[in-house]
Amino acid sequence: MKPELTYFAVRGRAEVVRVMLEDLGIDYVDRRVSVEEWPAVKATLLFGHLPTYRDGDVFIDQSHAIYRHLARKYALYGDNEQDRIRCDIVEEAFVDAQTNIGTFCWRPDFAQARAAYEATQLPVVLDKLQKLFDLNRSRSGWWVGDRLSYVDFLAWHTLEYVRALSPRNLDRFDRLKAAKLKLEARPRIAAYLKCERRPATLTVSMAPFGGTPETS
After folding, report:
1. Total structural domains within the chain
2. 212 in a structural domain
3. Which secondary-structure segment (H or E) carries 31?
4. Same structural domain for residues 38 and 106?
5. What residues of the chain score a pLDDT lower than 50?
6. Residue 91 near residue 84 (C-beta atoms within 8 A)
7. Could you tell me the sign of the dihedral formed by the alpha carbons of 115, 121, 206, 54, in that order?
8. What's the CA angle centered on 100, arms 99 and 104, to 5 degrees?
9. What is the pLDDT of residue 128?
10. I want to staple 55 with a disulfide (CB 3.0 to 4.6 A). Which of 3, 152, 176, 201 is the partner?
11. Residues 89, 162: one domain?
């Protein structure tokens, strides 16, 4: 049976899983829960949130646990313990960054606060991430060692939000942008990003930002 990813009909946290599976060439079921279905689905979930991932006897209902499961299964967790430690550090850095950006995009005063956030807070977040990127001494263009790892997908996901929210800030951090474009240039990912199967929006329609194709 095909693995099944369950999420809403938006990109959100499930987009990391989609892009990983697309790049790996794995055929999967992309189950999308409607607003009408959600209360019934939520009642069946221990933590009451999505995404979930099922592959045979494996069922995972925490997004980062899904990412790490795929990383272990498909050799995307570095080549040694030092690589794995760096993967963990990069992952946590992007958890913090995504929380910062995502929380801001849901603020009720988003429109009024946007200019100040882009000018002061967002550059600080991106500067720290670029300094972390530069600590990979291999200069491979990947976040860990000399090859692709699961945190490249996490990094790409957060920088996709930056692209939509503040492209001029992304342009200022040239090495972050180059890493993002490096992942996007992989043939299967490039094809997915252009295809009709990809959800049209970053998040749900009621979000102050990212809930429409024009903002995504």
Report:
1. 2
2. no
3. strand 29-33
4. no
5. none
6. no
7. positive
8. 110
9. 98
10. 3
11. yes
- The encoded tokens of residue 30 equal 């992309």
**What pLDDT does 80 receive?**
97
Q: What's the confidence (pLDDT) of residue 161?
A: 98
State the amino acid at position 21 in one-letter form.
L
38: domain CATH number is 3.40.30.10
The pLDDT of residue 114 is: 98
**pTM for the whole structure:** 0.97
Specify the pLDDT at position 25. Answer: 98
Q: Decide: residue 59, CB within 10 A, 0-12 exposed, 13-18 middle, 19+ buried.
A: exposed
**pLDDT for 62:** 96
The rounded distance, in Å, linking the Cα atoms of 216 and 210 is: 5
Residue pair 190/160 in contact (Cβ under 8 Å)? The answer is: no
Place of tokens 């009408």: 36
Residue 10 belongs to domain spanning:
4-75+192-203
